Amino acid sequence: MLRTNSWRNDGRVRFDEIDLFLFGPKGVGIRSLMHRWIPNQHSRTLVLDGRRKRVRILAIQDESQLKHNINISRSRPHGVLFVFDVSCSETFYYMIPLLEKAKPIFNSNTIRYLVGTKRDLRQDEPGNADEVILHEAVMLAMRNLMRYRESSAVTGEGVEGAFMSIIKDVHKLGLRLETQSLMANLGSYMSLPRKGNETFHSILEHRPSIDSDSWSVLSDVASSSEPGEPRDLNDSDTHTTSDTEWTSL
């Protein structure tokens, strides 16, 4: 797995692979969260900015399993969602030292999110000792350079937004890395000795080709926004959010 949005070919269609880890202790509902987004599957294929994305999700429930999957993979996952239960403060406090210990495991190109599940159980009433205060969760995410989301696998609230937000962040990072790689290769080519009156313009005409949609930049997804329901590509229409077009295959 490459750090950029790496192309793969299954013989029929070209697509990018995005690997996500969904990590959380037992009881926080990571499998319910995963199956709410991709029922009875471990992957889902989307179209984002005209490029097909195959998103694969691995649910992990303990630290040893997390380290094991990191060690056996050829590279780090593109994104990790650290999940806790907003109605159980014990699962939140478990995350505080874990996030610190996990920092050396992932490189700077791994997008990380902190996700609070079971939002439907949040009462937002003062004096509830077992409930995680929203401000504390946001501050923990900020200290670890992460985004924070809340969701409910029961009602579906926030589920689509959490997954689509991290996927779009991975997509944007991949485009930046592709552009940097392209410019580095172009710079190396430009530094080679040139014959006669060969101009800079003529060199640019021979630069490697890249899809035009690779230069577009996705807008951030607001925490309160939710993309519409995906549809098959055979449907007559697609759903758009801002300048992003995506559907489910």
Helix content: 25-40%
Fraction in beta strands: 15-25%
Rg, nearest Å: 21 Å
Give the beta-strand count: 9
- Sheet with the most strands? 7 strands, mixed
> How are helices and strands ordered from N to C?
EEHEEHEHEHEHHEE
CATH fold-level label of the domain at 7-169: Rossmann fold
The secondary structure category is alpha/beta
Please report the number of helical segments.
6
Question: Residue ranges: pLDDT <50 for 5 or more in a row?
Answer: 1-9, 198-249
State the name of the first-level CATH class of the domain at 7-169: Alpha Beta
Could you list some keywords that capture this structure?
disordered N terminus; GTP binding; GTPase activity; globular; P-loop_NTPase; Small_GTPase; nucleotide-binding; 7-stranded mixed beta sheet; 249 residues
Care to describe what's here?
The protein has a domain at 7-169: 3-Layer(aba) Sandwich (Rossmann fold). Helices cover 32% and strands 21% of the residues. It has six helices and nine strands. Strands 1, 2, 3, 4, 5, 6 and 7 form a seven-stranded mixed β-sheet that branches. The chain has a two-stranded antiparallel ribbon with strand order 8-9. A hairpin with a 2-residue loop joins strand 3 and strand 4. The model is unreliable at 1-9 and 198-249 (pLDDT under 50). One of its GO terms (molecular function) is GTPase activity. Residues 215-225 have a biased composition (Low complexity). Keywords: Nucleotide-binding.
